[in-house]
Amino acid sequence: MLVSPLALLTAALALLALLASLVLIVRSRFFRYPLRLIMGLLFFSLFLSLASLGFDLSLYRFFEQNKKIASLQIIGREANRADVLLISHEDMAERLQRFSITGDMVQLDLRVLIWNDWWVWMGMKPVYRLERISGRYDSIEEARNARYSVYSLDTHDVPMEIWRLLKAVGPEIGVRAVYGSGNFVPLVDGARYDVYLGSTGAVHTLPANREAERALQGWD
Fold this sequence. Notes:
This protein is an alpha+beta fold. The protein is about 35% helix and about 35% strand. The protein is built from 6 helices and 11 strands. Helix 1 (about 5-25) packs antiparallel against helix 2. It is elongated.
């Protein structure tokens, strides 16, 4: 779980909003002082929004420039389908997820938040979250008519998402919300690819064994 100055600030503001809402609601004597009740409900809504943003931010992970964040292992390749083992590196541990991908290629997408120098001075570091894994066909005809796979890697539903909020207002406050799309790589049995994230949010999927190298050479 991500603990950062922004996450702590969001949590503190959420608690203050909750405290203010409870005080106003109690002092309104519920319906005797409707203005206090309305203000209390508004502060409670603010608390819910801040809590949602703080929880969403906690799901992101710090990353260092050009450091491996995940691996893709291709296993059990059949006609137009393969099992892909996603190995993500989270909190000094590996998390394994298995997906059945249809198509000829696979791609990993991420959401990335990059802070300017002022935020870095405040202790913020670039963060990312895995977004989805998907397949694609080599043939345009197959892409039009065949079924292909898209899996969401974000299993938490929150009313407000920090990435979408910062996508809209980030440039005004020195934050870039980037959608990082990795390059498509071939679904070849035994191939293993490592996924790296650059400082600008660029995602690079590179071969990690000879099978992957041969697959990319033959694919080009």
